[in-house]
Specification:
This protein is of the alpha/beta class. The protein contains 11 helices and 30 strands. The relative contact order is 0.09.
Amino acid sequence: MPQHRELCLVTPLSLFFILFSLNVATAIAGDQNPFSPKGYLTRYWNKEVRNDAVGPSFLLSKASPLSAVQSASFAKLASENALQTKLPEFCSAAKLLCFPDLGESLEKHVKDASFTGYSGRNFTNYGTDRLAGADSFKNYSLGENLPVDSFRRYSRDSVNHKDKFNNYAADGNVIDQSFNSYAAGATSGTGDFKRYADSTNVPNLRFTSYSDDSNGRAQSFTGYSENANAGQQSFTSYAKHGNGAPNGFTGYGTSSNVAASDFTGYSESGNGANDTFTNYGNDENNPTERFKSYGDGGNAGSEKFSNYRDKANVGESSFQSYGKNSNSEKVNFVNYGKSFNNGSESFTGYGKGSQGGSVGFKIYGFNNTFKDYKDKKAAKFTEYAADEKTSLASASGSLAKRWVEPGKFFRESMLKKGTVIPFPDIKDKMPERSFLPRTISSKLPFATAKLSELKRIFHAEDNSTMEKIITDALQECERAPSKGETKRCVGSAEDMIDFATSVLGRNVVVRNTDNVSGAKGDIVVGSVKGINSGKVTQSVSCHQSLFPYLLYYCHSVPKVRVYEADLLDPTSKAKINHGVAICHLDTSAWSPTHGSFAALGSGPGRIEVCHWIFQNDLTWTIAD
């Protein structure tokens, strides 16, 4: 009997440990592990948010997919400043934006080649000392997400070698292409870039030490980076010491949005250079073109700019140290800077110290600065600032059609049941990423002063796309807030909850548009509900920023009204979406060039402006 009692005492205890072990193992294997980032987020929401609203399904969908064990392991590496040693594994497991390290070089190819369907390759020492022949890159990196290609020391010292880039990286997302020491010392031959990086999102294209010391090698850029969104192209030390090298830029950057081009050390000390810029930057929105040390020390060259920035909207162009100390250089600007809603052009040290040559401006725009300029008697101005009044008067209507998508901005009175309105493209065009657990993000640097550390962690080389992505995000996050604005960049869901509750209190709700149905077409407004009974309120809006991990720029928005509305198919009247819209009632601090005023035909402080919450953006409000 005592033996039986002893067995009874032991058995329940053993059973408890067995069951406990099984439960823990099951929890760790499943999604509901309380120690996983998603499990922790659920507990954090329940602790910080004081209402019975539906849980944070949107935030949970963006939470880190790391397991509890992975999260602890990578957090330890981060605390030891060793995360970069496991970057590929970290990026894959945490679902981050990381560029792959380029694979092996294709330097052993010796014959003519046609590359179709290639991507993510490193062409180093390729085609060196090639005699004649041709390489064709057709449909290369087409429609890819995050393609990375490098052409380094390509076609070096070649003779009459031809390179064709046709339909290269079109429709790509966050593309990274670099042409370094390309065709250096080459004689004759051609480089033809046609429909290059067309319709891409956030491209970063770099031409560095391109065609330096070449002799009679021609480069043609046709349909280059047209219809692109944001991004940057740089031409540095391009055709330096070149001899008789013609370069043609046709259809460059046409209809691009907020694009930037840098031409630095371009055609420096060249002999008999012949560069033609035709339809360069036309119809662009807010472009930035910088020409620095362009054609300096050149001899008997010719630079022709035709239809440059024609019908562009605002933006900035600067020509610094252009044609300096050149000899018999000829520069001709035809139809230059005749833009809608004018930006600025600055000419500093233009033609300074040059001998002979000529500078001509025909049908030149206005709002320009000429400083430290060559003897103005040598410059010919024809139809300077022509049609200024006509240009300004017609800007608003034409601008709205060109650059402001129908439905992107609207008046509050349009949010009425039964109204037919255009619905813009609200699709998220950024690469898919996840938040980091705060246990990891809190251990990573996030400041411009720590840029070198961030570059080391994410394998970002100098002048690379990743460096620009990191730099741009840091600059935006460190920008001083606007008048009345409270802002914070957050890299974890917990940080977002903290910011929203610090502004609005703990009785909050997260709202976002359900899906993208109806985008780029007409919709019928169904039932409309004003949040907080349609009263003027305050919200916290959060917009994605491009960064290796999911990063949101969150800011308080005072004096707004927030609405939810069913969106109906215009034909069947069936519900296809549930949208969230925010109406800004005080626009007095907005820029006069803001797209909403071009679309709605007014100005700062004169009207309210409404817009939809786009896919994967969100707004926080006090709960009803």
